[in-house]
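Students often ask what a holo structure prediction actually looks like on paper. The answer is less mysterious than it sounds. You provide the chain, you provide the ligand, and the output is a string of discrete structure tokens encoding the 3D arrangement of the protein together with adenosine-5'-triphosphate.
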Amino acid sequence: MLSVRNLSYSYQNGTMISFPDFEISKNDRLLITGNSGTGKTTLLHLLSGLLMMQKGEIIISGSNLSALSQQKLDKFRGRNIGLVFQQPKFISSINVLENIKVAQLFGFGKVNTQDATSLLNELGIGDKAQKSTNELSGGERQRLAIARALAAKPTLVLADEPTSSLDDDNAEMVYELLHQEAVKNGATLIVVSHDQRLKSKFENMVAL
Ligand SMILES: Nc1ncnc2c1ncn2[C@@H]1O[C@H](COP(=O)(O)OP(=O)(O)OP(=O)(O)O)[C@@H](O)[C@H]1O
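The corresponding structure tokens follow.
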């Protein structure tokens, strides 16, 4: 479903990072670990097309990312990839439910209120649907980030440090939700994290 070969990336200041080769099959889960500064976030941005790759090969569901223009990459990401960030940013001028609808619109060009509501319910924040995103706790924001990442039914979910800022109980719950929802939606899951608590949860690991 995803394979990475001979990948490296150079920032303009000359910092160059080389990544190990790896692959992941459909519906599998992979943890990418590494100390601070080893390139975890850079790799995630390359996999999601937020950074244009310069060298090597990234193939996702048969598409070679290096062959796509920035515009095509944006479209590809919207259709295929759900992103969960450590400190997710939402549109605070619209409510929780509308944030999910915006993600649906970006992903597949239309809104489905029933699906959006079900997703919030599954993630245990259905009662927050009409609230402003500013009124959510840290754990609730992470759950909304997962709901938003899944809103357009992506084939690949990429999560950047989704649990690092959470206490043990919330970290466990957020991870379980991420896993459960990925399985339920038939999505492949890649988590990038230095959070030691996650290591025992994954069979497949890549160390940077
Ligand atoms: N915009 C940038 N310009 C130049 N160098 C950068 C830039 N972003 C990151 N780097 C460098 O690239 C390397 C990898 O950074 P990256 O953020 O990918 O690491 P990380 O493993 O995610 O770190 P952390 O766990 O601390 O978030 C580091 O040496 C960093 O200083």
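The mean pLDDT is 91.
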